[in-house]
Amino acid sequence: MKSPLKTVSRIGDKLIRDTPFEYRLEVAKVTHLLDRMHCVDFGRTFGLGRAAVAYAWTCLTCVEETVLSLQVEHNDGCSIWLNGELVYKQFGDRVIQLHFEERSLVMSNEVVLQLRRGTNSLLVKSETRGEEWKVFVQPPATKGAVLAEDPCHPEIGLHGVRNIDPKVAGLSNWLVVGPFANPSDGSRRTGLEEVMAPEAEFRFGRMYAGIDGPVTWTIPKVEVLGGLIDPLPWGTNYNWNYHNGGVAWAMQELADLSGDSQYSAYASRFCDFHLDGIPFVSYQVKKLNAVDSANHFIIDTPLLDFTLAPSLPFISRLRREAWFPKRERYVNWIAQMIRYARDTQVRLPAHNIFTRTTPVEFTTWVDDMFMGIPFLVQAALYCDGEDARAAFMDDAAHQVLEFNTQVWDDEAALYMHARYHGNPVKLPHWSRCNGWAIWAMSEVLIHLPPSHKDYQKILAHYRTHCTSLLRYQHASGLWPNVLDHPESALEVSGSAIFVMAMARGVMHGWLDAAVYQAAVIKGWNGLASRIEDDGTVHGICVGTMCTEDVNYYVNRPFYDNDTHGLFAVLFAGIEVERMLGAPASRDEMEADHLAMRAPVTA
Q1: Is residue 156 within 8 Å of 59, Cβ to Cβ?
Q2: Cα–Cα distance list, 101 to 299, 302, 346, 418, 451 (Å)
Q3: Measuring CA to CA, how many Å separate 300 from each of 108, 201, 246, 329, 336?
Q4: How far apart are CA 342 and CA 352, in angstroms?
Q5: How far is CA 185 from CA 108, 189, 320, in A?
Q6: Contact 462, 510 (CB under 8 A)
Q7: How far apart are CA 153 and CA 62, in angstroms?
Q8: Which DSSP string corresponds to 143-192?
Q9: CA angle 196-198-199, nearest 5°?
């Protein structure tokens, strides 16, 4: 059997070779489907600082007659016409209020549009008192639900519009014209009420009397954004997401075991890149309206996937290193995350465990056992003061047991992916979600004192789960993507977490070594068969939402090198190496690293 440490070091070497930790400037992509937020930023195009009025125009194209609810957000007054008919009008001094939820954006107003088959003209009139000037529209957020049928979203934009060149349509979905004077008598917005030339007659090649002289139809300012380099279906290695933070955390552990500081340097670059990038990302999200731009989830996203979980390498570095450049910024970031864990993250009433508002309020996801509980354990080890340490460790132990009351399926002796509050429907026993649960349990068991009141209950459940998992291990050593559906493909990420958690059980004496060590070795050999010599890892299930439909899980696509699985495989190899107690020699490791890091030549 090849050294697990050598094998996963090849994965680490590939990550070092392939990850640039840089942004690339690119013209903002235009999405021609009304399935997300669209913004007209009049202020960026026409300027601020004075009262004014302007117009925006686009087409909505439908394959059939459609009733569409459209959320609207704007400053001050706004009117909207659909096919020449006024459908929305609101006066007043207003400030824009966009509410960022877990996986959605919520706006203040809504209008119902009766769209006809084919093209529909949408004209927007917006005013400003001079301080801000934007109009946002979007369909109501689906909140991350897996829908039985995809909604039929209309196309939005200028493609196919007579007298508009396709190159223009590729740059923007909107035409705009302005600015026009916005007179006011102090009590009402006469600019919004006054019928101006663009709403009376829409025609290209026509000049209108603007504030500063003649104006005509044009497109809004085209933005240049910082994007990620060579994004893959799940993102890139350095996206702000839990599995990318998990890779950085794994690389710290790999550095500890191998003695190779290049792995911990990778983790430090991940952390520094995101801390340094927060002002830039915030500017793109909040000033340039690019709410889906690179690494946007680091800005005001109330979800454990984008708060506590990707922060694990930050708090881990603080615990490992007494001093390093930018340490104070790490301290401030972790202080913010600790406050989030204690005061902000939504919890399930009467159970006091992490829960979500997606897809419905108080949906408890097994994922959040990993997304939140390991951070609580790290916080307990990091904090000063016995009371604070005890409070975090107590919370971690409590959450493990209370999650079991929600998402553990006694009949199957497996975890369901999620549970909708007050709804008895059972969700599938997805492999990776069972991994998140047993990973969290193992983190708590490693650090919870055996004398703690919850220790034996957690240990008993961990053993029950391991016994159940053994029933589903395939002859190859791997586990199916849906554990109790053998027709589903064998999958690497869940299998790696099971191998890791059972290796920990053997090492710490939680499991019978005579039974489980053989299962761990069998599982590791199955994982190793999916790892190429260059560090490529095959057979990783892409990220999922939650649903009762087992076919959704069975048919999820698999990818090579998806970081959802890479960090699990890294941890698996590390823990199997520790279990075996026979690390490769330093000289052997260094020779292997040098060979793997050599430049690739044609």
Answers
A1: yes
A2: 11, 6, 11, 19, 40
A3: 18, 42, 20, 18, 12
A4: 11
A5: 27, 8, 65
A6: yes
A7: 8
A8: TT---SS---PPEEESTT-TT--HHHHHH-S-EEEEEE---B-SSSBHHH
A9: 70
Q: Bridge partners of 135?
A: 40, 74
Q: What are the helix (H) ranges across 4-47?
A: 4-18, 42-46
d(CA 116, CA 498): 53
Name the 3-class secondary structure at 208.
strand
d(CA 467, CA 141) in angstroms, rounded, equals 41
Q: What is the pLDDT of residues 156-206, one digit of tens each?
A: 999 989 889 999 999 999 999 999 998 765 555 568 888 898 988 878 888
Mean pLDDT of 120-140: 95
CB 134 within 8 A of CB 42: yes
Rounded to 5 degrees, what are φ and ψ at 259? 80, 10
Polymer length of the chain: 602
496: buried, middle or exposed (CB in 10 Å: 19+, 13-18, 0-12)?
buried
Going from the C-alpha of 399 to that of each of 216, 305, 414, 505, the distances in angstroms are 61, 17, 17, 20
Tell me how far apart the 2 most distant CA atoms of the chain are, in Å. 87
Q: What is the pLDDT of residue 596?
A: 37
List alpha helices for 448-508, DSSP H.
455-470, 492-508
Q: What integer is the mean pLDDT of 33-54?
A: 96
**Hey, CA dihedral for 364, 369, 371, 376, is it positive or negative?**
positive
- Of the CA atoms within 13 Å of residue 176, those in its CB half-sphere come to 23
Choose among 25, 57, 476: nearest CA to 224: 25
When pLDDT is averaged across residues 534-557 and rounded to a whole number, the result is 97
Tokens coding 151: 């909604």
**Amino acid type, 227:** G
Question: Which pairing describes strands 52-62 and 155-157: parallel, antiparallel, or unpaired?
Answer: antiparallel
Domains recognised in the chain with CATH numbers: 4-24+226-597 (1.50.10.10), 38-222 (2.60.120)
65 three-class SS: coil
* Dihedrals phi, psi of 486, to nearest 5 degrees: -60, -15
Q: How far apart are CA 305 and CA 320, in angstroms?
A: 23
Q: What is the Rg, in whole angstroms, of the alpha carbon atoms belonging to the chain?
A: 27
282: which 2 tokens?
Answer: 């915030």
Q: Report pLDDT digits (tens) over 511-533.
A: 999 999 999 999 999 999 999 99
Neighbouring residues of 331: CB distance < 8 A, sequence distance ≥ 6:
318
Dihedral sign computed on CA atoms, order 553, 557, 559, 564: negative
**Nearest C-alpha neighbor of 432 from the set 369, 512, 388:** 369
Please state, in angstroms and rounded to a whole number, the distance separating the CA atoms of residues 183 and 425: 58
Please give the helix or strand (H or E) that residue 270 lies within, else none.
helix 261-282
